[in-house]
Amino acid sequence: MEGLLVPVNGERLQVALTDAAAEVADRVLDAVDGTQDIGLADYVNTGADAKTALGAVRLIGADVFAPHLLLGRPVHPDDAAVIAHSFAVFPPAGQAATPRQQVVAWRDWATSHLLARTGQPAPAGPDVVPTAVPQTATALLGPGKSWQEWSATAAQLSPLALPGLGGPIAAAMFDGARPLAQGATQAMLRRDFVTAARLIRWIALLSSSGVRQLLDPGLLVERIRLYGGTGSRLSLDLAIAGRLLGMEPA
Amino acid sequence: MSVQHTFLPAVAAAEEQSALEALMVEPEAGVSDAPRYVEIPQALALLKLKLSPPLPKEPKH
Amino acid sequence: MTTSLTSIAHNVAHRGLTYLHDHQDAEVFPADIPVEPEDPDTVYKPVAEIGMAAALVLREGVGGTAQLRAARELIDFTWRQLREGNLLYERQVRNCLLTDPIEVYCHFVHGGHRHEELERLVTHNAAVGSLPEVYPNRRLAVANSYRMCGIPTDDDWESLLRATWLGATPPPWAIDWDTAYSMTHTVFHVTDWGARPHDLPADVAGYLGTWLPVWTDVWSEVGDWDLVAELLIVDACLPEPRFDLDMWTRFASVQHSDGLLPRDAEPVETDRVQRFWDHCHPTVVAVVAGTLAVSRLLGAGR
């Protein structure tokens, strides 16, 4: 079935990856909201299209560690291996020159950093999983950015909004209460609940760390739940924000 | 490890890589079923329908 | 940057005022506005608003000679439309609880027009203190009208403000289009159209400083220029206006060559009279926004 991923056009590839990412997100969501394992290895190994499944794992990235970081669940060695394999099949770009590449590099850093913490041996070869901390936090989230640019970047980096990950991006968010709240408000008014939920994750993380925020993230989570925000990845973002805030699962 | 390196699919082609990258940086592009606000031709209608009742009749100053 | 913004805002106001000035004729305005029109919004309200814009141009005095002359002629023209205030007087006599006569009249007082019988009526009404139930932001309009006319009341401005949507500083994402207008009018009246920016309590000024840019962004994206113009006035009424050059540039770019400022992104009618009535309001608001911005930028505000 790898023929499905023979380059036809970018849009078809994106649709396939998006659908697979929704399945991965659903599994993580079930784990965050319930008691079951994510079962990443099961998903990748039993599905028809392993490559797309691994791409989806790369896309969901650090969020696969959400049950571990939020609820203290162990990371299964098979799942850790799948995450390493996702880097082998979709190797990270060598350099991060553009803001777009820098965002990707940070998301990869978060995933690989959390993977390394599990202590699982890297099965896919020593150089596949990136380990160096990118040096681009100031370039992406430094002063001089408009609140629109700043918050859009923060939304793209939302998989890094996990407790205990830390790092320069999270540190930059500590100074970003205002653009975070402005971006979340803009997204809410535009009915762009996907972007709103991503920013709410940061607001929830900072709020749960005792950093005073301009908006109440609990009300925002509730609002999106009540006013029709749907979709697997959106639900996962809301579930993670809700867990950070000690809210009951939806 | 239970999953062997040799069983892995081939390394993704450049176009597959770029499809993944696009999804990693675009909050709005196809990652969910949220409304694609900016692509709606009658964006004004969206905002007015969803955000607002009609103007009240009494004069405003 | 300040210079270019001043010039952009000046041009918006100047062109808008020119457009209004070019339309004060019998083809546009009906011969006689009824004292009790079926729909006050059709002619009575626009005439009052044009008079108000002209009065604010005269109050700020930052326009050139031609602009001030146009404003003078406009306020005189609209005053004649109101039959030198007799229309307001008769309206108040027939409906003793109406507040719009004083709300309209106060701007003409600033423009040098008086109507003594009307003043006696509204002074008496203020002493009676029987006000109809209105939106809290409209209640502030009444309070400011009395203040502008120098008629004493026992209004408690702090509690009047706190009764409004803005005064409660709710979550900024829980606003709608209509409430956005209410919010803008609360600011207009508390600050007397930018003359008293420091009458806004610090928490409200801070709230607006953070969220006004977001609201302006969202409503400019959909081309709701009428509301954007009102939001630009709010900015000019703040203790520390933001005066966003990009936003003003975008706003100025939608103004037509004859000075009309379209209310939204929909196509504009070609019929001279129809397009005037369709877009008179946003053009009036643009004149006020440009005038107050120039005034604040030049430091001429009180």
Automatic annotation (TrEMBL), chain A:
UniProt protein name: Uncharacterized protein
Originating species: Lentzea xinjiangensis
TrEMBL record, chain B:
Highest taxon in the source lineage: Bacteria
Protein's UniProt name: Uncharacterized protein
Taxonomic source organism: Lentzea xinjiangensis
Organism lineage string: Bacteria, Bacillati, Actinomycetota, Actinomycetes, Pseudonocardiales
TrEMBL record, chain C:
Ranges of residues in domain DUF6895: 15-290
Taxonomic superkingdom: Bacteria
InterPro entries listed in its UniProt record: DUF6895 (IPR054190)
Pfam families recorded: DUF6895
Protein name: DUF6895 domain-containing protein
